[in-house]
Amino acid sequence: MEQIEFFAQTTDLCKTFAGKKAVNRVNITIRRGDIYGFIGENGAGKTTFMRMLCGLASPTSGTIRLFESADLEKQRKRTGAVIENPALYPSMTAAQNLEVYRVLMGIPDKTVVSELLDFVGLGNAGKKKTKDFSLGMKQRLMIAVSLIGNPEFLILDEPMNGLDPMGIKETRDLLLNLNKEKNLTIVVSSHILDELSRMATCYGVIHKGNLIAEFSSQELENRCRRTIKIVVDNPSKAEYLLKTTVNANFDVMADGAIFLYDHFDEAAYINQTLVSNGLAVSVLAPGGQDLEGYFMDLMGGKNQ
Hints:
Blueprint: E1 6-17, E2 20-26, E3 29-31, E4 35-39, H1 46-54, E5 61-66, H2 72-75, E6 79-82, H3 94-104, H4 111-119, H5 135-146, E7 153-157, H6 165-181, E8 185-189, H7 193-197, E9 202-207, E10 210-216, H8 217-223, E11 227-232, H9 235-245, E12 250-252, E13 258-260, H10 267-276, E14 281-287, H11 291-300
Helix pairs in contact: 3-4, 5-6
């Protein structure tokens, strides 16, 4: 049987509320094995888009395919989701909550409850009521609920929202384990860009309902890469000197500009080497930006 590569695909997906497009002609493809980081400011359309993927909202227009199929009712049985605030029973323990969902979903294997509690790190929660859980514990229990049906595809809306640094790390480690150990494909929205960058394999950026960019983690790394930009009157000679004197990692652009990707603390020595070998250095300056700066620039260019 041919292996399915695309777990979610949307074509010109739209959702309109009171004449305003919350999601506007969004085309997204989520591939097998991805951890897809979905980024956007509050009100950008992230949750609306994810609700349509899950069947909690109907598109105004456009199409959704799950597992390369248009039979969404059938294919959604292969997905799990945590959207906004799913219901937990505050007077029940973690095990009792999972047991309720196991019965509701018709899962016959009772051992799934203890297995999932152990996997999300709640195996020792014992008789503690859910109302007394920390926010991080509640988030992990919600994720456990989403895993009861043994899904292949997981949709998580802001699972790190409001967590302290320890809770964020625990959630991130859990998602990485789900991706690697259970082979789950995951789409996760978050505004905590640094945390997304530690696990996402690709990204989609939504702004005012429009998908404005999609790129892989490698493309993002290259775009945010720290550099030293060098402009000289003889790029070929500079290239030779950078190779032979400091064994530098660099690229030479079509216009002759050189972007150096290492030896950042040796800028003065590199400048001296170039000048002492007869080169006129017109630019030697640091470049690149951090992840947050890159996304702010990306969003800033779309404010019109």
